[in-house]
Inverse folding.
């Protein structure tokens, strides 16, 4: 309980400092998840709700006139800290920790922007798009969805690196092993299917799912190349050629869904890596027997 109270007090102090020195806000979004992660790992889980309520309540009390900032970084940090703590404690692979936390952070980022725009009467995304000369772009919602995803992924990745190094000093190790390739391949295929399905329902969400597909697919490709197998190089080359040829259909696909043709490459890579894993496993069994 003492440790939990100390971490809550640190959160409040950091929140107060961000009021006095707004530039510290950019550091807090990386530091605050650490305190919540430590509470989750070293304190009893049933007390986490008390810690969360106390932290949010005190931060709101201090930042009453800037409560949108509390919603923007304190509440998301408590949620992602819980995800980090639970998954690290259960030795879940860091790849999945970052992806799961990114999902949570993306949702909070979306609502944070919406709440800020509601109370401040400013459309931040329009201002950002205007800055890059995209004011007349007809798919602003798609850009917004990808923007939320990218900043959330970057934030979570940096926060994880900080947390990993700090908890290592306290004797807590993280799982840095390669995740199960069959599981990665199946999830990638599922995301591609979800992207296509969602593109008929709500495009911006489909675009966000496409972002997750690109991250997981890129990881799979990098892992494939790390194996240094000539056959995998050749198959990847064939997959790339097939993907390039598939772009001949681009003009027949509703804009901006044509970009999803990139998923052809990732689908083929997922099938290749899934097959390679089981062929290797079967081959090793034969050798043992």
């Amino acid at each position: 309980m003492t440790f939990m109270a100390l971490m809550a007090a640190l959160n409040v102090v950091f929140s107060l400092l961000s009021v006095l020195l707004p530039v510290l806000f950019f550091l807090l979004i990386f530091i605050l998840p650490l305190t919540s992660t430590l509470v989750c790992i070293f304190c009893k889980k049933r007390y986490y709700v008390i810690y969360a309520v106390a932290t949010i309540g005190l931060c709101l009390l201090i930042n009453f006139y800037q409560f949108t900032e509390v919603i923007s970084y304190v509440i998301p940090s408590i949620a992602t800290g819980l995800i980090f703590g639970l998954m690290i404690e259960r030795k879940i692979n860091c790849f999945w920790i970052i992806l799961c936390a990114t999902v949570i952070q993306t949702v909070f980022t979306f609502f944070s922007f919406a709440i800020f725009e509601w109370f401040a009467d400013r459309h931040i995304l329009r201002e950002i798009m205007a800055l890059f000369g995209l004011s007349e772009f007809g798919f602003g919602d798609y850009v917004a969805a990808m923007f939320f995803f990218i900043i959330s992924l970057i934030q979570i990745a940096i926060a994880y690196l900080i947390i990993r190094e700090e908890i290592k000093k306290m004797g807590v190790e993280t799982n840095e092993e390669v995740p199960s390739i069959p599981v990665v391949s199946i999830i990638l295929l599922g995301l591609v299917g979800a992207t296509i399905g969602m593109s008929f329902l709500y495009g911006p969400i489909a675009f966000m799912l496409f972002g997750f597909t690109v991250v997981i697919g890129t990881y799979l490709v990098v892992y494939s190349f790390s194996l240094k197998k000539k056959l995998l190089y050749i198959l990847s080359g064939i997959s790339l050629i097939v993907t390039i040829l598939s772009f001949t259909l681009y003009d027949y696909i509703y804009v901006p869904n044509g970009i999803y043709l990139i998923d052809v490459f990732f689908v083929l890579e997922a099938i290749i890596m899934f097959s390679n894993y089981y062929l290797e496993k079967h081959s090793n069994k034969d050798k043992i027997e």
Q: What stands out?
A: The chain has a mean pLDDT of 80.
